[in-house]
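> call design_seq(struct)
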């Protein structure tokens, strides 16, 4: 009898441990999804992405409630169900066009990483068949273009700052990197063409200024050499 009771207890302990582990796994994923939901407020993303993330969060809450039921979870499920009723996962229209590039490098890096996470989540949901292929292509390309824009604008800004500080070599490196970033993408639109022309014009201007500077430096060196050659000899 003691052996049977011990075996039952061990079995229940194992079940409870597995239940807690599953709950913790769902909770960790939910935290990531809800973080992405908050992030969508900072980017001009489509309503379909917002709808998809909310639907995913609701499903995770349902899974959590199945593992460890609670009134708090049921209330949150109800909240998400009400929110999802007004959303359409096939609506690719942009939630908001408002977007401002951060000035802080850490914020810029965080923003680029957030876009990568959004694209990864969208790709994962598409692989599971929860997103229509046409919707996925539209939204993924939108996020990709936004990611490109942030990278290019950041490099251009750094190039402008270096140029204004008379650091022509550094400015040229930033502009060249911005140009490579644009060229590495397979698509072309009004933004990439416009920026491509602007960057090439800036690089041409820097090249001309460096050429003049190098000529002046060469003349100065030659003048200094002549002065040294014809200066009076010192007697030792």
């Amino acid at each position: 009898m003691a052996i049977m009771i011990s075996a039952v207890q061990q079995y229940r302990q194992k079940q409870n441990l597995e239940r807690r582990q599953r709950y913790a796994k769902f909770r960790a994923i939910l935290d990531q999804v809800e973080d992405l939901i908050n992030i969508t407020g900072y980017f001009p993303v489509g309503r379909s992405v917002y709808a998809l993330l909310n639907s995913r969060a609701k499903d995770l809450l349902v899974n959590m409630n199945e593992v460890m039921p609670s009134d708090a979870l049921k209330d949150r499920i109800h909240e998400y169900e009400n929110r999802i009723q007004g959303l359409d996962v096939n609506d690719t229209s942009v939630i908001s066009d408002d977007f401002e590039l951060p000035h802080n490098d850490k914020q810029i890096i965080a923003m680029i990483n957030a876009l990568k996470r959004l694209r990864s989540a969208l790709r994962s949901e598409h692989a599971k068949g929860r997103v229509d292929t046409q919707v996925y292509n539209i939204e993924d390309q939108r996020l990709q273009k936004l990611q490109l824009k942030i990278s290019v604008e950041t490099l251009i800004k750094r190039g402008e700052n270096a140029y204004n500080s008379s650091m022509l070599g550094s400015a040229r490196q930033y502009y060249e990197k911005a140009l490579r970033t644009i060229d590495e993408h397979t698509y072309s639109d009004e933004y990439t063409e416009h920026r491509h022309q602007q960057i090439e014009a800036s690089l041409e201007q820097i090249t001309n200024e460096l050429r003049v500077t190098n000529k002046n430096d060469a003349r100065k060196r030659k003048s200094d050499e002549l002065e040294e050659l014809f200066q009076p000899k010192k007697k030792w």
